[in-house]
Amino acid sequence: MEVSGAVSVALDPSAAKAVQPRRWFADPLVFAFTLAALLLGGLRFLELGRWSLWLDEALTLADTHAGGLEVNPIGYWVSGWFYGGGHPDEFLLRLPAAIFGLASILATLWAFRPFVGARVASLAAFFLAASVWHLYWSQTARFYTLAQTLALLGGGWLLRGLYGGSSRRTLLGLVLLVLAALTHPSAAFLIGALLVVPWIARWCEWVPGPAAQSRAWTLFFWVGLLALVAGSGWVLRAWFRWEARQGGASPLHFVKTVGYLISPTLGLAFALGAWRQWRRRESFALVGTAVLALSTAGLASCFVRVSAQYVFVLQPWLAVCAALLFLPAEGETDAQRKRHAWLALVVSLPGLIESALYFTVRHGDRPQWREAYACVFERRAPSDLVLGMDAPVAEYYLDPHTRTVRDWKIVTWLDDWRARVPLDSARYERRTWFVLNRTQLDDWTELPTSAENRAEFERLLREECELVATFEVPLTPRDLDVFVYVTKVP
Fold first, then answer.
1. What is the mean pLDDT of residues 111-116?
2. Beta bridge partners of 465
3. Which residues contact 56 (CB under 8 A, 6 or more apart)?
4. Which terminal CB of the chain, N or C, has fewer other CB atoms within 10 Å?
5. Which residue, among 39, 88, 41, has the nearest Cα to 60 in the 3D structure?
6. Contact between residue 101 and residue 44 where contact means Cβ atoms under 8 Å apart
7. Can you give the C-alpha Rg of the chain in angstroms?
């Protein structure tokens, strides 16, 4: 295993004189994985403006102009600074996420290298860059890649500080972790694990003696305790808001979504790498953090609905555990090195294939709301009524000067709460257009009459409307197809 730099001395002070840092690219696989990670990372900027917005992206712009939400202040502050007071196009809306997506790949290279060596760090960055999950959120106008980058930097500095006996690095790491949580509350899963796992490593005497007795650990204890006390109210508010918005528990949903987006091959490599390496003192902090954080999220899914996006911040930590499976052995031969390279490619293959589909037939894994609403407004008469799902997206496209897409005026939002609107409008001789995604009808469950309203609405579509256009997104795990209906002429 390669251990280099100041932190390597802290990990094993007795070997400080014997260990000499190697050049970053002394291992040919390090060069290959790093180059591949950077090239794939550049794809974050490809076709940024091609895909239609989806609901959360439109709401990001609206809430940025409205001052943001108290649980996401850093994310909305960055968005407000970048967007200003204007009406940015899709490219500019998504550019910050793409920048931080590439930054998180670079941060992965930096954060893990002192503990597991250059090959494992570069391979983890490659796994991250090859993931369609990471690509998607790097091209989405949300805060997940910013939170991931801050969490990587915070975790990297914290562990460097604790294992190297540096109070300044420890404090910097804790500050960055707090900023990650203020960017998106889902970072709390990682932070909780990082506040626990280093103490286990110290108890197991896997932290070098001089560092374990340094002031950094005293600072870590008191700041961690302060964060626990001061942040408990914030965590509870975020939890109750999350519970109200996400609905009931669904552990099966958590397992299925996380398993699919991590990919079966990377998930298997993660499990094997974590199992084989968790007892090595250099990698224990990384493995323990990943396993504990993911387990905590799984436990939370027994009480609230936890989708895969809420553990996106953990993806680099899962990737580094998978990369540990390819840790080079002493005296590694060229044949073994080539075998590791091919196996790593097999692990990344599902993500690479899905990334290719993402840029081709899958329309960026987004519903084609822009095209569907354009179709309607090219054909509608001035007196026609338009009802559509994700109405704020329609507002964004149809009123280029609006900053309040939550206050929709051009399109009436078609959802559970307004399910009676199309039924009532059908009584009058007024042509009505419907823009919908059928999967969203599954969310019509919140009212006592939801099932009845859905059945009657589907009857209306079937018997009194004609299908005008279909905007399909094939080969996706979710149904993203958008349909345009219009009532038949009397």
1. 95
2. 487
3. 140, 141, 142
4. C
5. 88
6. yes
7. 25
